[in-house]
Amino acid sequence: MKNYFTKYFKYFLIPIYFFAVSNPYAQFNDYTVKLGLQGHVLLPDTEFDKDLRPDSADYKFSGMGRAFVRFEFFTEIVEVEVGGGFGKLAGVDFNNDNWWTYIIPLDARVILSPFNMDVWNPYAYGGAGYMQYRNENKPSVTSPLEVKETDWVAEFPVGGGIEIGLSETIILDISGGYTFAQTDDLNGYKNDGATSEEKSNDGFYNLSLGLTFVNGWGGTDADGDGLTKSEEREIGSDPDNADTDADGLKDGEEIKVYLTSPLSPDSDNDGLKDGEEVNNYKSNPAIADTDTDGLSDGDEVQKYRTDPILPDSDADGLIDGDEVNTHLTNPLKADTDADEISDSDEIQIHKTDPLKPDTDSDGLKDGEELNMYKTNPLNPDSDAGTVNDFTEVNRGTNPLNPDDDVIKMNVPVVLEGITFETGKADITPESAQILMKSLKTAETYPEIIVEISGHTDNVGSSTSNQKLSQKRADAVRDWLISKGVSPDRMISKGYGEDNPRVPNDTEENRRMNRRIEFKRIR
Description:
Layout: H1 2-20, E1 33-45, E2 62-73, E3 75-92, E4 98-112, E5 120-137, E6 150-165, E7 170-181, E8 203-215, H2 229-235, H3 251-258, H4 274-281, H5 297-304, H6 320-327, H7 343-350, H8 366-373, H9 389-395, E9 413-414, H10 429-444, E10 450-455, H11 462-482, E11 490-494, H12 507-513, E12 515-520
Parallel strand pairs: 10-11
Antiparallel strand pairs: 1-2, 1-8, 2-3, 3-4, 4-5, 5-6, 6-7, 7-8, 9-12, 10-12
């Protein structure tokens, strides 16, 4: 028997070696259905092949063809196979004469293949079924018991094998095993031997070589990610993991919807995972700068807190990237320096500094100059009158008119409304209200020195009128000093009746001549 085994088994080793050194691509697990064709070499196991076998008897091999269909059963490592065959089981009897029996085995098998391998797939099987036999050529020896020449009997095949991938859809199958038949009539001889060892059912060994055709391999989607196993194999993603790169997107979504890489959690290298971009920020995971504003989506979200899908987050007319990189303004604040002018208007229209609320440092915010006073925010003295805009605004002069920048009091100015009772120097409440204007002038122009002159009509003596005019001038000076004006800035002088404004020929004219005048002397 050893010689026969060696003789025939070497033919099985040749294809094993050939395909082992090749580069197959078959997928043994995760498929729709497998269809297979096998050729079996059979070696009987009957009374003629056991203890009753004469030494001179030779072993005889025969053949069988078998077809099967195979499915996965809930898991990739368990398969269920249904198959059937037709063959001729042949041997020699005690007299070294030939016998043979036709067999038709039909069975179901459970196949276990626990190894997830790319080239080799070893497996073991066990099954049960029925087999029809028909004794076609009986042995020359007479059976001691009646033999059923044809019948259906139970059979139990067991064994193991190996699958070798030839291509993506074709597998070379090599297997060997043993089939237990629940009958002692396969060889046309039934023995009533005296010992239990001589009482046994017939069976046969088999060694097979076949081809298996895989349907649905590469077309299945075991992980439910929208990509077939074949597609994932070509891409390099994990067919058993719906999200290979753990970025929050299924591999199929990445390839077919978002055009990202299922092998990289951050396809555009912008600092955000693809899933975060799609699900949280609605940005494009395949473009580092979705809104093309000059800032990467990651910087917008993580650093500047701007909107990665809106180029101008604060709607100020400047794109976020320009604000950050060029102007250094706040892309989340339309008016960075809070001067009531948008950053865009400052840069593009007014040419002012969006980071400085008072570009010309005149004390007025740019927005106040433009919107309230119509002054130039780039020039601290808009009217070029030597006094800055802030001072003019606060003292009440026009910052757009240079004529009022410096007071012109070289010509005496009469304070209309400052009146005195005849022969008196008391300042009345009505006169105090008029003097408030003089106070404001003195406060507005702190650099000037003035003469306060008193004048009378011609009623009374010249000497008394001179003294009265001096008292009235002193009264005005004292009032201004009481309001905070420095005494050094004012000189009081009485002129009496010497300098009338109008002739003292009427009462109204005399009233006009009783007056206080201001004149700038330095």
